UniProtKB/TrEMBL annotation:
Domain of life: Eukaryota
One MF annotation (Gene Ontology) recorded for this entry: D-cysteine desulfhydrase activity
Sites bearing N6-(pyridoxal phosphate)lysine, chain numbering: K56
CC cofactor: pyridoxal 5'-phosphate
Start and end residues of each Tryptophan synthase beta chain-like PALP domain: 103-296
Swiss-Prot/TrEMBL keywords: Pyridoxal phosphate
Lineage: Eukaryota, Fungi, Dikarya, Ascomycota, Pezizomycotina
Protein name per UniProt: 1-aminocyclopropane-1-carboxylate deaminase
UniProt KW RNA-binding keyword: no
Assigned protein family: Belongs to the ACC deaminase/D-cysteine desulfhydrase family.
Amino acid sequence: MSLPDKFASIPPLPLLLGPSPIYLLPRITVDLSNNKVSIYAKREDLNSALANGGNKTRKLEISPSAASRATRLGKSPPQLRVGLRARLIQEHWVDWEDRGYESVGNIQLSRLMGADVRLDKSGFGIGHKPTAVGLVEECKGKGEKPYYIPAGASDHPLGGLDFARWAFEVREQEREMGVFLDTVIVCVVTGSTMAGMVAGFKLIEKLYPEEEAEKGAHGRMRRKVVVIDASAKPAETRAQVQRIARDTAEKIGLGADQEDIVIDELYHAGVYGIPDKQTWDAIEYGASLEDFITDPGL
């Protein structure tokens, strides 16, 4: 993949198998648009052999070396794979008191893969928490050199760069497939996935103005990134996305304007992590038409 110097100078950790696949969803395309609009999926859940991959795995490709890491990511295998200790703070983000809540899912996977998991009763919140600061100090007290990764690997100096690179991956795949994806739809909670996309696509527009002119000549619209809020705190999420997009843009020599940030607030059901009927219906819809498996946050 051809990358500008701003990215090529940051060597990623080799965590991905390669570009995550993009493919047409033919039955959903027919059902929703009668073939007037083609609907594709880019499968970040197939991007790595490492614990089912996902956007967090991509985010950890751009990360400095450290002796240990304090992390609230939700999964730990990337740290362990490169020989680092993983200390994980698992907060009580979902208001759900089932006895299995703190022993299954991501927590169970993290323990299976050797992470030091710390359960914390702190509720939902995408900001930095005192418990994380405390864990960093604990690591230092043990003579370790911690590298702190906040929730979603988002609000830190490298947040957003990974998905800015992702935008260039999409551009290359589009050229190979002979398509242009004019609308990218993604879920948002902690913000760096969307923020990186916004900055990356904006850099592409700057570097390849002839491609933008060609799209205009063929009546194509400018690409937009539309985000579905899953936090149920859209004001907080929007502010963090704008901050990360701005920081990412500055690192790659751009500016990110507020009008680049479009967040749809219609689908969060009023609370993080607890799906409503329309969410369950959407999960069933994708599975029944395309064998396309999602979870309530996607």
